[in-house]
Amino acid sequence: MFVRSPLSIPLMLLALATTSAAFGVEIRQPNVIVILTDDQGWGDLSLNGNPNLSTPNIDSLARDGAEVKNFYVCSVCSPTRAEFLTGRYHSRSGVYSTSTGGERFNADEQTIADVFKSAGYTTAAYGKWHSGMQYPYHPNARGFDDYYGFCSGHWGDYFSPMLEHNGKMVSGNGFLVDDLTDRAIGFIDEHRSNPFFVYLPYNTPHSPMQVPDADWDRFKDKSLVADPVQANADRQDDNHTRAALAMCENIDHNVGRLLSHLDSTGLAQDTIVVYFSDNGPNGYRFNGGMRGRKGSTNEGGLRSPLVIRYPRRIDPGTKVDLISSATDLLPTLAQLASVRYEPTKPLDGISMAAALQGNPIKQMGRTIFSTWNGRASLRSDQFRYHESGQLFDITSDRGESQDISKTHPKIAASMDRTLRRYLTELKPRKSQQKETRPITLGHPDANYNQMPARDAEPRGGIQRSNRYPNCTFMKNWIDTDGEIVWDVDVLGSGLHEVSMFYACADGNEGSDIELSLGDQRIRATIAQPHDVPLRGMENDRDPRTEGYIKDWKEITLGTMQLTPGRGELKLRATRVPGTEVAEMRLLMFRRLE
């Protein structure tokens, strides 16, 4: 096993608390707000030299706090979220994909929300979860008292979409990033008298490329300055880039709203605010001349902005040059907040708290391992080494343009051995591998259990609406041969009411359908048509590759008594009087007892 930290986190925090008590200093436990953006690259901030946009509010966090210059995340969404939430490499906890179950980190992992909740904090998460939808993977089961947003990897529309609130399906209110910020501000107001932990994973600038008119109008005709690397400049899609930058300025506006609210409520001095992104940019655009984008294990796919403001303990304008990663945030924030805890599993992350407070720390030859879908690289203080054998001096060649493996063979060989040890120990899987873990259903603590189309297998002639499954629905359900099947593991007993969210063209109503699990069967008739068009494209600023959505209607199918065990949950038609049964978005199980 790799050495992760020279001093255990609990001992460090105990020493800090003891010192404060000895000097008679009473420090209010700080609130914590963690903002995570989706597909925003390191270069998508004016802080990092991008001349195409202005992000003064995010930039102010660096001016008034600390900027971590060499901070790394994973090359795609869900692995980064797992590493932030657990302090451990995502491969250790079972994450290998971004959909259909592979985004779930194991249920026995301790989360940052667990840690802060155990310390007396009230916790909330608002936004894109992307770490599992059903209990025990749902955010309410991972230490968050309140959750509002969507659990999938991407969403089909950002203007008043269907969302969930603590498992129950609800409708959003306006542009989603604005809505999520409103939720966070409301939570702060409600819990301002006690310490709170708010995780705010924004969904932009991930596609679909949607943003309010006021933000888009500043960019729709804007001339763009290209990235210094010609390969990035040549591959830039100008319209997509304009939309992404407009979305980033909208994020900055909402960060400003949040910071202003902390100021007006007198909470700013006692609140830690963290801002970072989950991977490199979702397109070739200005990124400081770095090679790679989202999905890459080069600098451009892995380097993320990280700014942290905590006026009580972090001096304005602090710069931290140490290499660090998303795994470091759990131990860092716990130490800054004087939260004592005992990790249930060894962490890969180490605390940066001392460095953030101006005290140099030694990392003793630390390396940061990155892997995704068969690619892997290793970052040391000076170098990045790729599994292909290439070696780059990042301190002088951030763009990874000059392979120096031949002129520095000993360094390449040493980093290769370390990389191989990581690969042997962590055994990362490729994202194309099929998920072998079932979808969970009927957890004793879950009042709502969502079974979406994205987690099901279409059989017969039934088809998924798009190859990117996260926000899909099932279509071409035209006969009694087709089935929609979920491989489920029922975790508890109980009577549940089951409903289905559907669309049905006029004239196709009247199909009889059956839902079965083992010996349990419930039957219903789709008596009412719900003929609605696809939507989402009316708000797109750039064409999407993911599918569009519909406004779904809910129908109650009946009640089902769940009992523990693994089986196939099957939805099929027994009579089809028209040309199609329906289009199916999800099933919802609601506990009745």
TrEMBL record:
Name by which UniProt lists this protein: Arylsulfatase
Q: Sorted alphabetically, which keywords does the UniProt record give?
A: Calcium, Hydrolase, Metal-binding, Signal
- What InterPro entries has UniProt attached to this entry? Alkaline_phosphatase_core_sf, Sulfatase, Sulfatase_CS, Sulfatase_N
List, in alphabetical order, the Gene Ontology terms for molecular function in this entry: arylsulfatase activity; metal ion binding
Which PROSITE patterns does its entry note? SULFATASE_1
Q: Which family does it belong to?
A: Belongs to the sulfatase family.
Span of the secretion signal?
Answer: 1-22
Region Disordered: start and end of each range?
429-464
Q: Which Pfam families match?
A: Sulfatase
Concerning Gene3D superfamilies, the annotation shows: 3.30.1120.10, Alkaline Phosphatase, subunit A, Galactose-binding domain-like
Q: Give the organism the record lists.
A: Rubripirellula lacrimiformis
Q: What class of enzyme is it?
A: hydrolase
Start and end of every Sulfatase N-terminal domain? 30-338
Enzyme Commission number(s) of this protein? 3.1.6.1
